[in-house]
């Protein structure tokens, strides 16, 4: 088991955003976290990535507790994420945005960088080569020297995913990766995720509203509604679950 979320509760003052939620993700799985707006999905991501501490419960990664650990240490352990609202540096090129994802891995010291010693150049070369390999898999290599803002919304999302992959994660968390994309782009993205899973050997946990997308991509899902788990299991069963259908007002029928 790569990720175990055990009995997590998160309260913000009087609001219970997550109410005693548990689920687990297996290695190399593409797992979906779904539920209506405000259900608590992003809060759960923020707990897994160390941005929030749970009020109760624990999170285990490869069997070791990670709840309460600082976000950058969780990246070190092998969990990287993208955000619901794209967070790229607009005045930087696509390549430079991706290079930021490598920062913590650099194997030269600050002094070696300032003095521009050989290890600095060797490491820079290795990192750049890896960045181009990642861009190649994601089909954005041709935009390497373009400004991030000049790209379409869909391409910018891929740059964000590339930056997350630069950290060499074992678990990739994607917050609504298909948001704002047209049906053709969404279809293409689903195929890309299978490719990412296989090429980078990662497990993917994603939040998504587009049920057609989730149905194509995920074997198992967890459905949250007002912070409570109303379903956990196979996507095929989720589609026919009365409580899930009710929470989604029938959206599943179109999946
Ligand atoms: N930092 C915070 N302070 C107070 N309340 C918060 C905070 N973060 C989230 N909440 C509340 O927790 C609940 C769950 O929000 P969350 O953003 O996790 O939902 P979501 O399922 O990701 O929704 P969406 O699909 O709209 O992104 C909401 O009631 C929200 O207002």
From TrEMBL:
One GO BP: L-alanine transport
PROSITE patterns: ABC_TRANSPORTER_1, ABC_TRANSPORTER_2
GO terms of molecular function: ATP binding; ATP hydrolysis activity; L-isoleucine transmembrane transporter activity; L-phenylalanine transmembrane transporter activity; L-valine transmembrane transporter activity
Presence of keyword Membrane: no
Domain ABC transporter: from-to ranges: 3-251
Record's GO cellular component terms: plasma membrane
UniProt keywords, alphabetically: ATP-binding, Nucleotide-binding, Transport
Segments forming a coiled coil: none
The keyword Transport belongs to this UniProt entry's keyword annotation: yes
SMART domains: AAA
Any matching Pfam family: ABC_tran
InterPro entries per UniProt: AAA+_ATPase, ABC_AA/LPS_Transport, ABC_transporter-like_ATP-bd, ABC_transporter-like_CS, P-loop_NTPase
Protein name: High-affinity branched-chain amino acid ABC transporter ATP-binding protein LivG
Species: Halarcobacter anaerophilus
């Amino acid at each position: 088991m790569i990720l175990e979320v055990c009995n997590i509760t998160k309260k913000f003052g009087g609001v219970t955003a997550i109410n005693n939620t548990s689920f687990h993700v297996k290695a190399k799985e593409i797992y979906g976290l779904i539920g209506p707006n405000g259900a608590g999905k992003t809060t759960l991501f923020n707990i897994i990535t160390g941005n929030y501490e749970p009020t109760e419960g624990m999170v285990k990664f490869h069997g070791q507790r990670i709840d309460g650990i600082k976000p950058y240490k969780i990246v070190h352990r092998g969990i990287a994420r993208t955000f619901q609202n794209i967070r790229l540096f607009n005045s930087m090129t696509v390549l430079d945005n991706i290079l930021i994802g490598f920062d913590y891995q650099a194997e030269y010291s600050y002094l070696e960088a300032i003095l521009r010693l050989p290890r600095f150049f060797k490491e820079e070369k290795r990192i750049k080569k890896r960045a181009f390999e990642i861009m190649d898999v994601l089909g954005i290599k041709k935009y390497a020297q373009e400004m991030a803002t000049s790209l379409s919304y869909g391409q910018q999302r891929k740059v964000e995913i590339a930056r997350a992959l630069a950290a060499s994660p074992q678990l990739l968390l994607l917050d609504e990766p298909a948001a704002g994309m047209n049906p053709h782009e969404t279809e293409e993205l689903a195929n890309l995720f299978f490719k990412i899973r296989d090429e980078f050997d990662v497990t993917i946990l994603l939040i998504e509203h587009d049920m057609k997308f989730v149905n194509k991509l995920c074997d198992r899902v967890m459905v949250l509604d007002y912070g409570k788990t109303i379903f956990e299991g196979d996507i095929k069963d989720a589609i026919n679950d009365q409580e899930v259908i009710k929470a989604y007002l029938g959206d599943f029928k179109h999946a």
